[in-house]
Amino acid sequence: MAAGGESHGATDSASYYVSHHLTHLQVGEGFWTWNVDTLFWSTLLGVLMCTFMYFGARKATADVPGGVQNTVEMLMDFIGGLVKESFPGPTKFVPPFALTIFVWTFLWNCMDLIPVDLFPDLAKSVGIEYQRVVPAADMNATFSISLSVFILIIVYSIMGKGAVGYAKEWLFHPFGKWLVPFNLIINFVETLAKPVSLSLRLFGNLYAGELIFILIALLPWGVQFVPGFAWAVFHILVVTLQAFIITVLSIVYLSMAYESHDDDH
Fold first, then answer.
1. Residue of 201, 250, 255, 260 marked active site
2. Considering its fold, how many domains does the chain have in total?
3. Cα–Cα distance for residue pair 257/195, rounded to 1 Å
4. 70 assigned to active site
5. Per-residue pLDDT reduced to its tens digit, 251-264
6. Are the CB atoms for 191 and 153 separated by under 8 Å?
7. How many CA atoms lie within 13 A of 192 on its CB side?
8. What mean pLDDT comes out for the span 187-213?
9. With contact defined as beta carbons under 8 Å apart, do 251 and 87 qualify?
10. Which residue in the list 197, 250, 255, 260 is annotated as catalytic?
11. In this model, does residue 9 exceed pLDDT 80?
């Protein structure tokens, strides 16, 4: 939901309000700057996710399942079905990984539905100047997920093709052995584009959503509700869709990495 509710004084311009809400709580300098709020909220949501899954597994029963068990089983069946349809290799690790990405990014995205002034005001009341609570709107967070996918792409490429087969793919695919330099360039760009596209897609959509909620919060109290409610309802679809897309693309990229292109050489 769009929040707001805070009456902004004459000295608080709209541009200051927006920039303040888009500024991270940071420590460090230069390359080693840490966005503390992103680390805090992403870790907290990760702990909540693991706790929910843990109790879902602990309460599993063959009798009539409860709500938590139903939810966990539904998520596992959903992700397991996606992996089974797309991934040709061993599936011991991929479903839990994909499930983690889906639930974690979904929770990240849902933070956009919390009133935009709520946590910044609470933080300010205890002396903390800045507070952003949507990890997916921080490129560092989305890139960290895409980096894990990138590492697994390399791992599953070697698992599926072998080290020699993976090297041959880089050298000889797609244009054959006579155009090795062009093959290396194309494979480098293709491999790098996968994690970058994952990161930027999620970041761009959630950053835009966060910004729209902030702009709606600038409206007078009597005007906020209708556009805020409408955007919140629409954003629920965006939240779910973005978590689904990054999960499906991660599975597809791992599938492409595992499959051999020997027929093309």
1. 201
2. 1
3. 13
4. no
5. 999 998 888 665 54
6. yes
7. 6
8. 90
9. yes
10. 197
11. no
How does pLDDT run across 111-156, given as a tens digit for each residue?
A: 989 988 899 989 999 999 899 999 999 999 999 999 999 999 999 9
Whether 6 maps to a domain, the answer reads no
DSSP string, 184-206: HHHHHHHHHHHHHHHHHHHHHHH
Strand partners, 26: 35
Beta strand segments in the chain, E:
26-27, 34-35
* 248 inside domain: yes
Q: Which of 60-69, 76-85, 138-147 has the highest mean pLDDT?
A: 138-147
Domain with 166, as residue range(s), is: 14-264
Q: Is 32 domain-assigned?
A: yes
Determine what percent of the chain is predicted with pLDDT higher than 70: 91
Q: Quick check: 24 and 130 in contact, CB under 8 A?
A: yes
CA distances from 193 to 171, 196, 265 (A): 18, 5, 23
Residues 6+ apart with CB under 8 A from 144: none
Q: What is the mean pLDDT of residues 26-30?
A: 86
pTM of the model: 0.86
At 170, phi and psi to the nearest 5?
-65, -40
- In the set 109, 199, 205, 255, the catalytic residue is 205
144 tagged catalytic: no
260 in active site: no
251 closest CA partner among 179, 193, 198, 210: 198
Q: Does the residue 7 lie in any domain? A: no
